[in-house]
Design goal:
alpha/beta; 7-stranded mixed sheet; 7 strands
Length: about 230
Amino acid sequence: MHQSPKHSPISDRQIETVLNRLHKEANKQVGSLILHYLPQLPRLFLGKGIQWDQTKTDFYRDKYIPIEPDQGEFMYLLARSLNAKTIVEYGTSFGISTIYLAAAVRDNGGGIVIGTEIVPEKVVQARKNIAEAGLETYVEIREGNALETLKNLNQPIDMVLIDGWANLALDIITILNPLIRIGGIIVSDNVNTFKGKLKPYVDFLQNPDNGYCSSTINLKGGTELSVKVNNIYT
């Protein structure tokens, strides 16, 4: 039986072509990633999550480790539903997630995706990929430690993607929290993959006393979806 091609909500041939190429390149790296994490399989079977070592970053310099297409399309639709104009992304890597978010901002009539990336080589390539998709007008990538590069934000934030070093997630959201508007959304990747490191962060989002309504959904490694419902700060 003939199957029709998968429908994408992003109706832009140029963007889809770039995303398809990047996802294919990322998929080629799956084997090396499996070998890298193989010693930690017992921890995963026991439900303890992967132990992540921030000091060992060389392995990741050429690795995409991106969101998957289903996640990207999900975030695109969320951003469209919010009419998001300002999106902050912690962990740009090679820019795959940035392209989905920037496409939504463009289709919402304009705005900015503020990306963060600590690896200089990745910043260069991400900018090239975003330009190839025709979305450079809607993206600013801040190179360096996000704990520093995000300190001077002063505009209301509609949406946040947390997809960087897991042990800094809570610190990052503490910086951004006062700027996230009521009704704003946080999407957090790999909350099950990095369950141990992200537990304090997920606990913060799932505690209604902190102003969020939050739940883990079944997308790649666990995706936390959090909506800001009030401006309680703790």
